[in-house]
């Protein structure tokens, strides 16, 4: 049998609660395909769960081990959610796929509660079901010795407002909890005397570690939060949903603007030859969730029943399958998207008009 031609890439995995199961599906399809080798993964929040599950599974059993570890992880998410999730998917939600109005009712009640009380008040013992779930899925003493993939996990330093990126040998359960710490739900996580919240505020995910610490030029961004919505939100729930998406896309879009600027300098030869070799010409690729997740909102990021999670997985697999068919040949050759037109507002690069 002829061996498949493989290409080495980096993955950038966004956070987004239960919607991280979409990225699970993308990774599962890539691993099943067998033509993509993953050198590094930069991740935040739910993306971090996928990243560590991949690393833990791959170091024990290669691609198939990674697929099994990812499924085991999301089964644990479902079990934990059945016991502890504040948002419940009601029967009508299940008979009407994609509906979120009824889940939104329980989410709205819980959201109002968190505006009245902080987690230091309603959760003084700092109980986090994710802590037990991680113990059931991952052996962190083994994970820190993982050498089959470079892991980069982002968390936001509460005091400085800066992102901190943790690497393989630093990853502990507390680091994962910090990366996924929503401050209205959980107390800030203390690591080495500093306190951290969800990494999505300052790096969702952080791309720069993939420039500095990996060899592959290809970065595939797996989106969880739709970047564009055609309709203007008018209900309270729709406004909260869109605000959540914009907030957790902001840091990524800023990094992409910087990438677009450097690429423009390289392509238009604005940099002297003696300096060009010091800059990495990054190739950007994107698995977008705008279409696949357009019927879902912020409330469903807290829905974790197995039927819903596997539906998200299947959406991710389908999206990844189309992406492979259309873009695999671009890997190692060129970006499969134009960052300026795909992510940055049209006309935003025009020079500002000087006023006198």
Blueprint of the fold:
Elements: E1 7-13, H1 20-33, E2 36-43, H2 46-84, H3 91-95, H4 101-116, H5 119-122, H6 129-137, H7 140-143, E3 150-157, E4 163-167, H8 173-179, E5 189-191, E6 194-198, H9 208-212, E7 218-222, H10 236-267, H11 273-276, E8 283-287, H12 306-327, H13 339-343
Parallel strand pairs: 1-2, 1-7, 2-3, 7-8
Antiparallel strand pairs: 3-4, 3-6, 5-6
Helix pairs in contact: 1-2, 1-12, 2-6
Describe this structure in words.
- This protein is an alpha/beta fold and 356 residues long.
- Helices cover 47% and strands 13% of the residues.
- The protein is built from 13 helices and eight strands.
- The protein has helices at 20-33, 46-84, 91-95, 101-116, 119-122, 129-137, 140-143, 173-179, 208-212, 236-267, 273-276, 306-327, 339-343; strands spanning 7-13, 36-43, 150-157, 163-167, 189-191, 194-198, 218-222, 283-287.
- Strands 1, 2, 3, 4, 5, 6, 7 and 8 form an eight-stranded mixed beta sheet that branches.
- The longest helix is centred in the first third of the chain and has 39 residues, at 46-84.
- The model is unreliable at 92-102 and 346-356 (pLDDT under 50).
State the CATH architecture. Answer: 3-Layer(aba) Sandwich
Low-confidence stretches: 92-102, 346-356
Order of helices and strands: EHEHHHHHHEEHEEHEHHEHH
- What proportion of the residues form beta strands (DSSP E)? 5-15%
Number of structurally distinct domains:
1
């Amino acid at each position: 049998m002829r061996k498949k031609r493989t290409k080495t890439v980096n993955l950038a995995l966004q956070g987004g609660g239960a919607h991280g199961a979409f990225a699970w599906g993308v990774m599962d399809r890539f691993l099943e395909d067998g033509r993509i080798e993953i050198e590094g993964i930069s991740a935040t929040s739910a993306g971090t769960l996928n990243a560590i599950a991949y690393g833990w599974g791959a170091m024990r059993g290669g691609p198939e081990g990674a697929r099994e570890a990812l499924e085991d992880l999301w089964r644990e998410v479902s079990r934990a959610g059945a016991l502890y999730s504040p948002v419940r998917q009601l029967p009508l939600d299940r008979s009407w796929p994609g509906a979120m109005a009824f889940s939104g009712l329980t989410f709205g009640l819980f959201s109002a509660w968190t505006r009245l009380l902080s987690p230091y008040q309603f959760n003084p013992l700092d109980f986090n079901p994710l802590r037990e779930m991680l113990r059931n899925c991952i052996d962190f003493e083994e994970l820190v010795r993982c050498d089959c993939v470079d892991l980069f996990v982002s968390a936001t330093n509460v005091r400085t407002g800066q992102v901190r990126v943790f690497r393989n040998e630093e990853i502990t359960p507390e680091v994962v909890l910090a990366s996924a710490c929503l401050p209205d739900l959980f107390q800030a996580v203390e690591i080495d005397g500093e306190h951290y919240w969800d990494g999505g505020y300052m790096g969702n995910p952080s791309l720069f570690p993939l420039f500095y610490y990996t060899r592959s030029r290809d970065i595939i961004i797996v989106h969880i939060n739709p970047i564009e919505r055609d309709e203007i939100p008018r209900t309270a729930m729709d406004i909260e949903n869109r605000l959540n998406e914009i907030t957790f896309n902001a840091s990524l879009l800023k990094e992409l603007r910087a990438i677009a600027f450097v690429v423009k300098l390289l392509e238009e030869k604005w940099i002297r030859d003696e300096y060009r070799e010091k800059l990495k010409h990054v190739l950007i690729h994107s698995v977008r969730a705008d279409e696949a997740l357009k019927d879902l909102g912020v409330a469903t990021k807290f829905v974790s029943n197995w039927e819903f999670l596997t539906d998200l997985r299947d959406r991710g697999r389908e999206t990844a399958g189309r992406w492979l068919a259309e873009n695999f040949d671009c890997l190692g050759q060129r970006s499969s998207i134009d960052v300026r037109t795909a992510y940055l507002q049209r006309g935003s690069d025009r020079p500002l008009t000087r006023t006198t």
